[in-house]
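Re: that chain you flagged

S.,

Sorry for the slow reply, it's been a week of failed gels. I finally had a moment to sit down with the sequence you sent. For the record, here it is as I used it:
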Amino acid sequence: MHKQKFKSPLALAFIVVILAFYGSYHLIAPIFNNQIASRLTEKADSLYASYTPIPVAKRVQKNRFSPRFMRKIDLNRADTSELMKIYGIGRVLSSRIVDYRERLGGYVRVEQLLEVSGINKSLFSSISPIFLVDTTCISQIFINFAPQSIATHPYGGRSVHKRITNYLNSEGGIFKLKELSYKNILLPSEANSLAPYLRFDSVTSSDTLHKIINTK
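Prediction finished late last night. Pasting the structure tokens below so you have them in one place:
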């Protein structure tokens, strides 16, 4: 068989270089690839170590009526149907809120909702921004004329009523809340709770007096 001769030594040298490169590639490639992989791993570890996670805001369940999109609700004037429009307040809870308001004589602060059965801290934090409290419509007790109302008040009771009645019978009247504390008629906690609901002044209207007498 006749062998083809290369016309140029340069062409022969070129072919030798190509063959040498091809033969050595299989030996060099794994090492080269391992170096690349190692560098990439080091770079990834460096980036991960310097990475600061962006805090994700907790998803807050919005009220059906958010304070941002609705008018405030007066806790002392809202009826059950209006209260039921608020997310988290159903028929039973709305009735309890109104019933407790009537027993109190009105709310003096929104935090009193925590005293309503069925309202926990979680629900309160959700609904409290919706409410405002108008204390001008609070129903107060004329302590010198109708002390019996203390017996059924949530912050009173039979024991408080008995102590106040005994003091009225012996002293003839109560003119300041401090009297009840100084004379140990009420505990400090009882006096602070009852303070917004008590009146110590005299009755100035015959109609008011008649109304008080009829509530006895």
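What I noticed first: Residues 141-214 form one domain.

Talk soon,
D.
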